[in-house]
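User: Hi! I'm working on a homework problem where we have to compare a predicted structure to a textbook description. Could you give me the structure for the chain below?
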Amino acid sequence: MARDVLDEAKILLGRRQFSKAIKLLEGRAEIYSQDFEYNLLFAIACLYLGDTGTASVFFQKARNIRLTDTRLLLGQAALFLRRGDTDRALYYYLEILDNDPQNKIAIAAIEFIRINGDYNTICRWVDTGRIEQFYPSLGLNPYKIAGITFPIIACVLGIVLVMLFIPVHRPSAGNRADLSSLALTIEERRNIQETNLASGSFAYIMSASQINESYEKAQNYFLSYRDNLSQVEINRILNSNASVYVKQKANILMGYLEEPGFDTLKDFPSYKNVQNEPVLYLDCWVVWSGRVSNVVQTETLYKCDFLIGYDTMENVEGIVPLSFDVIPLIDNEKPVKVLAKIKSVDGRLALEGRAVHQSVKN
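Assistant: Happy to help. Predicted C-alpha cells:
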C-alpha cells in the first residue's frame, strides 16, 4: 500500500534522516500547509538539525491549529530550554504534566532545570547534543537496532555452539543480579551532590566522598547477601543531599533486595536503634520477640499492638502497631517471634508482618 508524504516523513525522522524529511515535506507545502501533523513534523526535523529559527516558525503554525499536543509542547519547551529561558520552558513542561502526569521527558527536563539549569551547563548540553534527550521522542532508530541485534544474534549462536561442544561451568542457583549498569558514571560522580540545599529537607548532609562510599557499601552489602545493611545505606542516600541520579540508581538497587525468612535474615537492628533513627531503617527486616495485645482480626486482616521485648513479661522495650495481610496463627497467651518489615504509618513506626514463630511448649 502506498504511503502518504506524512507517513514517509515519520519513517525518515525515525531513521534520523532529517534533511531528507524536510526536503520531502517542502515539496508538499501547498497541499499540507494547514495540516497540524505536517507543520509539527517539519518543526521537529528542523529542531533536530539545529535550525531553531525555522523550527520555531513551524511549531507556532502547528500551535495555531492545535494547542495541547504533547509533542508540540515538548518541542516548544526544548526551544526555550536551548536559549536558557528556563522559566518559559518550565511553563510548557508543567502544561505537559497537567495533561500527561507520567511524561518521562517532561519529568526529566524539570529535574535537569532544577539541578543543572544554569546557562553554561545548558550551552554545553546543546554543544554536545545531550539536550536532544528533552526533544520530542522519535522512537527507536531501526538502523541502530539492526546494528545491535545482528551482533547479539551472532554472539548467541556462538555461545550455543560453545555450550554444545565444550563443558560449561553452571553457577549455582541464587546468584545475585549484575550491578554493572548501576555503576556511577564519571559525570555522576562529578555531580554527586545536590547543588541547592535549600531545595529540600535532608536528614543527612554528606560530603561527595561520603555519598560515594555509602553507595558503594550498598552495592557491596547486596552482593554479600546482607540486604538489611544495603537497605540502610540506600535509606541514608535517599534522605541525603545526594544528587537525583544517585538516588535513582539507589532506588533501582532497592528493587533487587529480597524478602528473607527466619533462617536467612541477618544484620537486623534492635528496637532501640530503630527508635533513635527510624528513617535509616525503613523497609529493613527484623525478627523481634514479644507479645501481642489489642488484637483486631477480620477474614482478611490481622492487627494488634506488638509489645517488643515483653516475651519474658519483665520489660517492654516499645509498643508498635503490627499488621498481617495473611492471618497468622498466634496464641495470644504465649510469647511470639515476628518476622516483619519496618514501615512508617502516619509518621509512626509500624511493622508489616510476614511470619511468626511460637514454641509449642507452655
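For your comparison, note the following. The longest helix spans residues 142-165. The radius of gyration is 28 Å. Good luck with the assignment!
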